[in-house]
Design goal:
Blueprint lengths: L1 H20 L3 E6 L9 E5 L4 E8 L5 H4 L4 E4 L3 H11 L15 E2 L8 E7 L9 E4 L10 E7 L1
Parallel strand pairs: 1-3, 2-8
Antiparallel strand pairs: 3-6, 4-5, 4-7, 7-8
Bound molecules: copper (II) ion.
Length: 150
């Protein structure tokens, strides 16, 4: 039984390795201390699609310490965040009809995850992009650069 379990584990591990090495797959974590664990994320320009997983590694409810991951041109971050506050809690602090938003995850609380896949069409290598959390007050520290490398 244990041997079977170990073998199954090995198969799972080897199946997971190529996915982990995939440069078009990104993972970022948010916590109860209002922090992302990375201040920069990058993908090569060869990625036509990017898959991003946001994990909330804390315990607090999303109404108290909710996190999302919103991608836009850097110049659009603050206006999107401000509109998000106006959209309110019922809309997870994001006006998803705002076309300046390139991609976004769900707003999540402790122990939850949200995975999205988005197209990089229209984005350019060397462009000035940023990601942030649109929960009120979080953009000040929960933000980073999104870099597309040649
Ligand atoms: Cu947040």
């Amino acid at each position: 039984m244990n041997i079977v379990k170990s073998l199954a584990g090995l198969v799972l591990l080897s199946a997971a390795l190529p996915a982990l090495a995939d440069e078009c797959n990104l993972t970022i974590n948010g916590n109860d201390a209002m922090q992302f664990d990375q201040q920069e994320l990058s993908v090569p320009a060869s990625c036509k699609e990017v898959t991003l997983t946001l994990n909330h590694t804390g315990n607090l409810d999303k109404r108290v310490m909710g996190h999302n991951w919103v991608l836009s041109e850097t110049a659009h971050m603050q206006p999107i965040a401000t509109a998000g506050i106006n959209a309110g809690a019922d809309n997870d602090y994001l006006d998803t009809s705002d076309e300046r938003i390139i991609a976004h995850t769900d707003l999540i609380g402790g122990g939850e995850s949200s995975t999205i896949t988005f197209s990089t069409e229209g984005m350019t290598a060397g462009g000035d992009y940023s990601y942030f959390c649109s929960f009120p007050g979080h953009i000040g520290v929960m933000k980073g650069k999104f870099v597309i490398t040649e």
